[in-house]
């Protein structure tokens, strides 16, 4: 009986070998098959990139402008021609028909890589990725993905916001800092940014309070101005933001107070007000993603979450409006973040001594209702919390 089994196994092995040979099989072929044929990549000359913008990059500042600067940087880095880029502009992320039409227009024009840049595009991007398995889809700011042709990308912008909070905390005289936010505690993306900014403020000014007004919209230019004005009327003398236009910074300059911008360097929009801006270098990701499609390594790319270390997020150069010593303190904190020895949402509080030297103290991270988020000395919260479940404000933040 044992001899019969051995003979059968041997015969089966021979059959498999011949069958594989008859198909022209090889190790590289089997790997390509496992990857759905993507392992071979797409030649540079055949790449066509679509990008769906919520605004118009021609505005010259803000969210869509910086995304498009990233697309331009990727185009230059990889060597794509202008006709290899398709742009869909002013696509309302609450209008499902407009989103679908924009993505399908990219497909109709031959795009094999499509970037959708606003949170509200997520569900339709997922749906269309399922309908078009041979096209690569990449969605910014969301959390959905699949294992084949759809991923998400965002960054540790909270790290840059902490640094910008240092500039704000050193500048305020009223100890009231305003923050015009797209959303409040509904979304972890906005909460994590607000919380990091507030913690940066507190590292140099523990008496300061951050007052938040929520737009309940990613893009609302008129209320971005109105809410900044309302915060200034409350006595806020520094205005920060998580919204698309420079309107809060312009309102700050008009009122004779100061500001911290977002997305792009907004110093040109409000030169007398701007301290710095938390900014994105989207070309870091766009270059990585398109090169992965060319190289056939998309499966290895996965979801992307870069930070200061990768140069994906940063702050704009400090202006002369900043308080003395701001640069030195920011540089000291940046070094800790980049070398990985400390991160923002940990149970280690940063402060500075009388000589301007950084001090690390074990202390619990608490929300503004007194709940302990991280015990004293504890490691920073998981990325999944920062991106998905941080639906609370830290102590020192108030929603108005």
Structure description:
The chain has about 400 residues and is of the alpha/beta class. It folds into two domains: about 110 residues, Response regulator (Rossmann fold, 3-Layer(aba) Sandwich), CATH 3.40.50.2300; about 210 residues, 3-Layer(aba) Sandwich (Rossmann fold). Helix content is about 40%, strand content about 20%. The chain has 13 helices and 17 strands. It is globular.
Briefly characterize the structure.
The protein contains 13 helices and 17 strands. By secondary structure, the protein is of the alpha/beta class. A hairpin with a 5-residue loop joins strand 15 and strand 16 (372-374).
Quote the beta fraction.
15-25%
Gyration radius (Cα, Å) is: 25 Å
Supply the CATH class of the largest domain. Answer: Alpha Beta
Q: How do the SSEs run, as a string of H and E?
A: HHEHEHEHEEHEHEHEHEEHHEEHEEEEHE
- Count of helical segments? 13
How helical, in percent, are the residues? Answer: 25-40%
Mean pLDDT across all amino acids: 91
Strand order of the largest sheet: 12-10-9-8-6-7-17
CATH topology of the largest domain: Rossmann fold
The CATH H-level superfamily of the largest domain is: Response regulator
Question: What is the total tally of β strands?
Answer: 17
Q: What structural class do helix, strand and pairing data support?
A: alpha/beta
Q: How far is the N terminus from the C terminus? A: 82 Å
Q: What's the architecture of the largest domain in CATH terms? A: 3-Layer(aba) Sandwich
Whole-number tally of structural domains: 2
Low-confidence stretches: 1-39
What general form does the structure show? globular
């Amino acid at each position: 009986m044992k001899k019969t089994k051995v003979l059968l196994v041997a015969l089966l092995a021979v059959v498999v070998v011949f069958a594989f040979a008859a198909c022209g099989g090889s190790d590289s072929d089997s790997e390509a098959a496992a990857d759905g044929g993507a392992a071979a990549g797409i030649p540079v000359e055949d790449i066509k990139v679509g990008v769906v913008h919520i605004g118009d990059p021609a505005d010259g500042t803000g969210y869509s402008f910086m995304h498009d600067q990233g697309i331009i940087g990727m185009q230059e880095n990889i060597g794509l021609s202008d006709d290899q880029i398709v742009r869909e502009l002013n696509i309302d992320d609450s209008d499902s028909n407009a989103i679908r039409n924009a993505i399908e227009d990219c497909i109709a024009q031959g795009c094999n890589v499509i970037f959708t840049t606003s949170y509200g595009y997520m569900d339709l991007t997922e749906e269309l990725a399922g309908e078009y398995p041979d096209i690569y889809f990449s969605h910014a700011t969301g959390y959905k993905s699949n294992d084949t042709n759809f991923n998400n990308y965002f960054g540790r912008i909270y790290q840059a916001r902490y640094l910008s909070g240092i500039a704000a905390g050193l500048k305020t005289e009223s100890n009231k800092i305003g923050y015009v936010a797209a959303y409040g505690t509904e979304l972890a993306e906005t909460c994590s940014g607000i919380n990091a900014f507030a913690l940066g403020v507190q590292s140099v000014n523990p008496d300061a309070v951050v007052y938040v007004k929520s737009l309940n919209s990613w893009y609302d230019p008129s209320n971005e101005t109105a809410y900044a004005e309302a915060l200034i009327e409350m006595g806020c003398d520094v205005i920060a933001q998580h919204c698309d236009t420079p309107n809060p910074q312009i309102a700050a300059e008009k009122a004779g107070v100061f500001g911290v911008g977002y997305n792009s360097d907004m110093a040109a929009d409000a030169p007398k007000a701007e301290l710095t801006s938390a900014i994105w270098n989207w070309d870091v990701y766009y270059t990585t993603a398109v090169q992965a499609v060319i190289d056939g390594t998309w499966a290895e790319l996965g979801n992307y979450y870069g930070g200061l270390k990768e140069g994906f997020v940063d702050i704009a150069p400090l202006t002369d409006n900043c308080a003395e010593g701001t640069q030195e303190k920011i540089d000291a904190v940046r070094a800790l973040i980049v070398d990985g020895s400390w991160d923002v949402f940990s149970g280690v509080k940063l402060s500075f001594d009388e000589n301007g030297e950084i001090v690390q103290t074990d202390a619990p991270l608490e929300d503004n209702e007194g709940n302990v988020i991280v015990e004293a000395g504890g490691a920073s919260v998981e990325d999944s919390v920062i991106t998905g479940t941080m639906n609370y404000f830290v102590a020192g933040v108030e929603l108005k």
